[in-house]
Automatic annotation (TrEMBL):
Gene that this polypeptide is encoded by: hisF
Top EC class, one word: lyase
Family under the similarity heading: Belongs to the HisA/HisF family.
Function as written in the Swiss-Prot or TrEMBL entry: IGPS catalyzes the conversion of PRFAR and glutamine to IGP, AICAR and glutamate. The HisF subunit catalyzes the cyclization activity that produces IGP and AICAR from PRFAR using the ammonia provided by the HisH subunit.
Active site: residue positions: 12, 131
SUPFAM superfamilies according to UniProt: Ribulose-phoshate binding barrel
Organism: Actinomyces johnsonii F0542
Protein name per Swiss-Prot or TrEMBL: Imidazole glycerol phosphate synthase subunit HisF
């Protein structure tokens, strides 16, 4: 039996409010995170991801009060990321109500953190968040995809495919693959990037960045995504979770 494809609304939070922009620029207010989380839970979301998009850039930890209030309203798995720098940070987030923790910038700085968190809490808690963008293949990276940090503000020169492979080896239970080029553009997922990572990585892969139509979710799943994450199309009512699941079902993908 095939595993159901998961639909994951993403709450990008800054200063306690959900925001959304294009390529992480021009952020606009999209609502209250607690209210949106409760709405998506009621609408049939399989999971919800909460990302404090300015925590790493501002050098602070994720806002635990918002996480706690969000967790109280959500009865599906909740992934939280942003500003996670230590095993202690992960412990605090889990105690606040998170089920999984997304790690990005701190893992680039010290990859061993992934292994430490996995050993303490289990691989299922660790989501390696990979913010990748296209670059000249063979020049910057062999694959043509480069890892960025701090919401896409900082280049690393690290090959995104190689980093996803290493992250899984270190203990990441899932890879959240976000196309920085497609983020907020609503022109479809970067399926070539999904293909490149899927070919090398066996842990569950979450596709992110580019959802614009219900069919985009089915296309991403067809290229090997185990889950599909989106934000603006849900926040602004472009489509519903039910419509995204119907498109997956029509394409032959199992959904919950």
């Amino acid at each position: 039996m095939s595993v159901a494809i998961r639909i994951i609304p993403c709450l990008d939070v800054k200063d306690g409010r959900v925001v959304k922009g294009v390529n992480f620029q021009g952020l606009k207010d999209a609502g209250d995170p607690v209210e949106l989380a409760a709405r998506y839970d009621a609408q049939g979301a399989d999971e919800i991801t909460f990302l404090d998009v300015s925590a790493s850039h501002e050098g602070r930890s994720t806002m635990l009060d918002v996480v706690s209030r969000t967790a109280e309203q959500v009865f599906v798995p909740l992934t939280v990321g942003g500003g996670v720098r230590s095993v202690g940070d992960v412990d605090q987030l889990l105690r606040a109500g998170a089920d999984k923790v997304g790690i990005n910038t701190a893992a680039i700085t010290r990859p061993e953190l992934l292994a430490e968190v996995a050993q303490r809490f289990g691989n299922q808690v660790v989501v390696l968040s990979v913010d990748a963008r296209r670059c000249p293949p063979g020049v910057t990276t062999a694959s043509g995809y480069e890892v960025t940090t701090h919401g896409g503000r900082t280049s690393t020169g690290i090959d995104a495919v190689d980093w996803a492979v290493r992250g899984a080896q270190l203990g990441a239970g899932e890879i959240l693959l976000n196309s920085m080029d497609a983020d907020g553009v609503t022109g479809g997922f970067d399926t070539e990037m999904i293909d490149a990572v899927r070919e090398q990585v066996r842990v569950p892969l979450i596709a992110s960045g580019g959802a614009g139509r219900p069919e985009d979710f089915a296309i991403a799943a067809g290229h090997g995504a185990d889950a599909v994450l989106a934000a603006s199309v849900f926040h602004y009512g472009t489509m519903t979770i039910a419509e995204a699941k119907e498109a997956l079902r029509n394409a032959g993908h199992p959904v919950r």
